[in-house]
């Protein structure tokens, strides 16, 4: 990428220099920069490729309060989940059973870590899950083919099936992560039951395919940006997961692509955002959709979100996934080749967040 005022621009060298500070985007903001560095500049036109929705469209909001009351109440919830999974790929859930104080503590804990002294955070800096259980860095795809760097720092940690020993987690968020994980696993259990029923299958079907087995927690931290029109908080992408549970703070910013328009996912106090991932679209043979989403950069901030991915992407897993036999017929043949999650994830990471779905590479 060459800019008018710079003939020589080596994005790799500049990305590496940024990485070696180990202070992320927060370090740039703390240095009181007034201009966004070139590596963060998105290609011209990519923010206006899809216009934000001008209508009052809202993603579905589903109340889980009645899910355990009686069979007919549960069926009504399943119908709403089915509609959301098929038409939107996203919904917000209220009365999900996770106490408000638990939500507040994980949000506060994530913020506390990201606002720690840089020297504390550097102890956890890595790009290799094999070296550290708890990994802090900026842009997991920094060295991929992604066209620009995102205005976002994050920490990541696999909390299931083998959670790290408590002493491997930072004090700032240790207790909050362990408590939140317990509740998220319970909610995930219920969600996979409801999604199985929405497919017309037995409640345990998706859980029996190990969809619930692995949980990756990522805490995103989006500092305020001095030139938000030049960059993105996180570029357009779909998730390489079966399912994602997202807690976003009251600043908001998440947008999903629906019918060729960007729709804001407005924060609802106490609600959680649920979205289908690529692996769920794959095994349901396009019955459920893994929708593209993004977070624009913002002058307001810092914005914090906690994403919990049901996915074993960085863990050894030899299971081969393809469209479920129960959902395939002569009239509806398999739309995807079989693939392991490891193979899929390697391709997904190498591609980076470039606005395309890696599912297109395995489509038959």
UniProtKB/TrEMBL annotation:
Pfam name, any one: DIOX_N
Residue ranges constituting the Fe2OG dioxygenase domain according to the UniProt record: 213-312
InterPro entries, per the entry: DIOX_N, IPNS-like_FE2OG_OXY, IPNS-like_sf, Oxoglu/Fe-dep_dioxygenase_dom
Family: Belongs to the iron/ascorbate-dependent oxidoreductase family.
Database matches in Gene3D superfamilies: B-lactam Antibiotic, Isopenicillin N Synthase, Chain (2.60.120.330)
Name this polypeptide is given: Fe2OG dioxygenase domain-containing protein
Gene Ontology MF: a single term: dioxygenase activity
Source organism, top-level taxon: Eukaryota
UniProt keyword terms in alphabetical order: Iron, Metal-binding, Oxidoreductase
Cofactor(s) this protein cannot do without: Fe cation
Signal peptide boundaries: none
């Amino acid at each position: 990428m060459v800019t008018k005022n710079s003939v020589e621009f080596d994005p790799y060298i500049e990305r590496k220099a940024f990485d070696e500070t180990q202070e992320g985007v927060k370090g740039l903001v703390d240095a009181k920069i007034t201009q966004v560095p070139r590596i963060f500049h998105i290609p011209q036109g990519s923010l206006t490729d899809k216009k934000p929705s001008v209508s009052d469209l809202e993603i579905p909001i589903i109340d889980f309060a009645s899910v355990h009351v009686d069979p007919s109440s549960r069926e009504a919830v399943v119908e709403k989940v089915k509609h959301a999974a098929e038409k939107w790929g996203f919904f917000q859930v209220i009365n999900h059973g996770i106490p408000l104080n638990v939500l507040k503590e994980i949000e506060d804990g994530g913020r506390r870590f990201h606002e720690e002294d840089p020297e504390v955070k550097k102890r956890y800096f890595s790009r290799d899950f094999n070296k550290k259980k708890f990994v802090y860095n900026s842009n997991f795809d920094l060295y991929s083919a992604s066209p620009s760097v995102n205005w976002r720092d994050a920490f990541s940690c696999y909390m299931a099936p083998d959670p790290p020993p408590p002493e491997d987690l930072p004090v700032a968020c240790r207790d909050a992560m362990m408590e939140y994980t317990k509740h998220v696993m319970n909610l995930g259990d219920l969600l996979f039951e409801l999604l199985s029923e929405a497919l017309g299958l037995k409640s345990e079907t998706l859980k029996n395919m190990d969809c619930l087995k692995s949980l990756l927690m990522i805490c995103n931290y989006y500092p305020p940006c001095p030139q938000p029109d030049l960059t993105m908080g996180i570029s357009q992408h779909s998730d390489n997961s079966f399912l994602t549970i997202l807690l976003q703070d009251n600043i908001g910013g998440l947008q999903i692509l629906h019918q060729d328009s960007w729709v804001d996912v407005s924060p609802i106090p106490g609600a959680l955002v649920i979205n289908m991932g690529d692996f769920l679209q794959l095994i349901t043979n396009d019955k459920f959709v893994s929708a593209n989403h993004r977070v624009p950069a913002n002058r307001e901030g810092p914005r914090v979100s906690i994403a919990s991915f049901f996915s074993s992407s960085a863990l050894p897993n030899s299971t081969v996934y393809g469209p479920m036999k129960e959902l395939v017929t002569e009239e509806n043949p398999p739309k995807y080749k079989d693939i392991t999650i490891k193979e899929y994830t390697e391709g997904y990471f190498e591609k980076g967040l470039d606005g395309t779905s890696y599912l297109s590479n395995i489509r038959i």
